[in-house]
Amino acid sequence: MISCSKKETNPLLSEWDTPYGVPPFEQVEIEHFAPAFEIAMKEHKDEMEAIITNSEEPTYENTVEASYYAGELLSRVRTVFGAFNSVNISDELQELARELSPKLSAHYDEISLDPRYFERYKTVYENKENFDLNDEQLFLLESGYKGFVQSGAALPEDKKEELKKMNQELSGLTLQYSQNILAEVNRFKLVIDNQEDLAGLPQASIDAAAETAAKDSLEGKWVFTIQKPSMIPFLQYADNRELRKEIYDAYVNQGNHDDEYDNKENLAKILNLRVKRAELLGYEDHASIRTENRMAQNPENVFDLLNQLWDGILPKVKQERAALQGMIDKEGGDFKLAPHDWFYYTEKLRKEKYDLDESEVRPYFELENVRQGIFDVANKLYGITFTPIEGIPVPHPETTVYEVKEADGSHLALFFMDMHPRASKRGGAWCGGFREHYYTQDGEEVKPLVTNVTNFTRPSGDSPALLSVDEVETMFHEFGHALDGLFSETSYTTSNIAWDFVELPSQIMEHWAFEKDVLKMYAKHYKTGEVIPDELIEKLHASANFNQGFALTEVLAASLLDMRFHTMTEETPELNVMEFEKEYLNSIGLIPEIYSRYRSTYFNHIMGGYDAGYYSYTWASVLDNDAFEAFKETSLFDQETAQSFRENVLAKNGIKDAMEMYVAFRGREPKIEALLMNLGIN
Ligand SMILES: [Zn+2]
After folding, report:
1. Does domain 285-359+547-678 sit in CATH 1.10.760.10?
2. Which of 478, 510, 554, 593 is catalytic?
């Protein structure tokens, strides 16, 4: 708790006497942060020390629960700092962030790796039956314990040393692997000096290539790179087939040139070390460690799902291949479709079949209309309302604040929206918050403060902000995350959201965005008020499904390769990763016209974070399609289904096992059929 007997002048350290206890953003100056962090870290450490040295026997309350309440001041200071450092950035603040970052990670390491704390935690864990814990407490205790075991906290001292060495070696190797990719990306340049070779390319792409050339002192020429914004348009539009091959070959062979940037041996060493480490930690393989605390729970479940989808998608992608070959034949091209042709003929086919021009759609997606549409969808589903509210402190003046109320008018939360790009804002779109739902130690309920931040098209001149299709989708997506936060019923500020479940609440919202009945609610022409015509809706729907076989095949191949690598159970010093990749992907029937989305020598995701985790994108798609189907089976705004989704999923996310949540909502485990159907596969 904060003690403030003498008058505190640092607003970060005083009681927050603001409406709804929102952080006093407008009173905070940069110089308040450094001293506040120092005091808050010290306070957190003292609180943890008191827990660890408590002379009483470890109990759930005096050890695990007490640690959830510790560090409250620090998390408040971090919240304010984090808000400024993402939407109100300055050089001074960034400098401070660089200074603070190592201090903070050292602080948290010191606390979480303290063997004295683990000993107490373990005692509680082993005696959990004696503490009369509720489901949430038991879930957090158990998943926390697994986390300790995965990080090696339970190992004897000598094994811990061995683990530390492996981790160090791994972090060196993974860094090297990533740096090699970067070097490879920077090394390759496709230099064009003959204007004819630009045939087919859009002007924006040509201009960008001329700029790149000028930067490289190649004035008057054009330079394309294997960075996606440069390469993808080239693959899609350049008529010169030889040059398409040249750039794509460079892309798919990054880290595979048997030179100083080669990654074959690096990856082999990394995989072998992960085999060894899994064994040391008492697991079957690396993938078993990574999936244990997730919805998938084990590699078998991941393979099971990926294989089902794989079998479903192969016929579809073969149809797509045939259509592209048909296009080549029709044009009189006397050759067989190759990987570097796929993008080019796909674009031709897209234009021929759909001819959807985005500038036709934008006038129907005025930001204010879309926002109202989103609020109306939430109202129809959950009965909640959004009312603009003034006088609430915000981290940047462009933020608008809404009070969210339940159907009966009671206060649920505050919702902050900050929509447009500016120099002081980090790029992208995200959902965050200034406070989670929880109960104080005195049992008082604290309501959440949730934010959506995006970088959408600004209004310009007389025209309001008109969103692209992608932006509309993103707005619904981030709002789905927001609902997850608004409806949260967690007891503590600690929760443990399964990593392959976190995108369900967001991705399911995307489905409402483009439903015909919903579009008719909000997609109105900003000038005339005319509702979006049926014909345009049909075009939108049709083009959305185009080329989905290719997209899913690419991703599935990479996901399967990642899982296959990380279910190796024996060290294989002679491992040749490219041969392994080729044999494995051939054996499961990948067609030769498509490469895995990332290949072994430039699969940066699996260096850390997405190792045995690349599947999670696909996993989430299965969930959101299957979950949305529950509404389609009844009605788009079915009250019973919505209530069940709120109670079983949104309220419990992070405090209950993900599969149990899902089954409670859906009445069964997830099935892949809805995803396949939505991709146009029967
Ligand atoms: Zn998301």
Report:
1. no
2. 478
| 567 neighbors 633 (Cβ within 8 angstroms) | no
Q: What top-level class would CATH report for the domain 19-133?
A: mainly alpha
In angstroms, the CA 77 to CA 434 distance is 10
Q: Give the mean model confidence (pLDDT) for residues 444-467.
A: 92
* Half-sphere exposure (Cβ direction) of 448: Cα atoms closer than 13 Å: 25
pLDDT at position 1: 44
Domain ranges across the chain: 19-133, 188-252, 285-359+547-678, 364-531
Q: What is the distance in A from the centroid of ligand 1 to the CA of 238?
A: 33
As a whole number of angstroms, the distance between CA 48 and CA 341 comes to 60
Look at strands 411-418 and 449-453 and give their pairing. Answer: parallel
594: Cβ–Cβ under 8 A, 6 or more apart, which residues? 317, 339, 342, 550, 553, 554, 557
Q: Positive or negative, the Cα torsion across 612, 618, 621, 627?
A: negative
pLDDT of 192 over the 90 cut:
yes
Q: Catalytic residue at 478?
A: yes
Distance from the alpha carbon of residue 143 to the mean position of ligand 1, in angstroms: 23
Q: Can 285-359+547-678 and 364-531 be said to share one CATH topology?
A: yes
344 alpha carbon – ligand 1 mean position (Å)? 30
Q: Measured in angstroms, how far is the CA atom of residue 345 from the centroid of ligand 1?
A: 31
* pTM score, whole prediction: 0.90
Q: How far apart are CA 641 and CA 672, in angstroms?
A: 20
Residue-wise pLDDT for 331-367, tens only, equals: 999 999 999 999 999 999 988 888 787 788 999 999 9
Q: What's the CA-to-centroid distance between 481 and ligand 1, angstroms?
A: 7
Question: End-to-end CA distance of the chain, in Å?
Answer: 59
Cα-to-centroid distance, 505 and ligand 1 (Å): 8
User: Dmax of the chain from CA atoms?
Assistant: 86
Choose which CATH entry (1.10.1370.40, 1.10.10.10, 3.40.50.970, 3.30.9.10) describes domain 364-531: 1.10.1370.40
| Residue pLDDT, tens place only, 577-589 | 999 999 999 999 9
Q: Confidence class of residue 496 from pLDDT cuts 50, 70 and 90?
A: very high
Ligand 1 centre from 222 Cα, in Å? 37
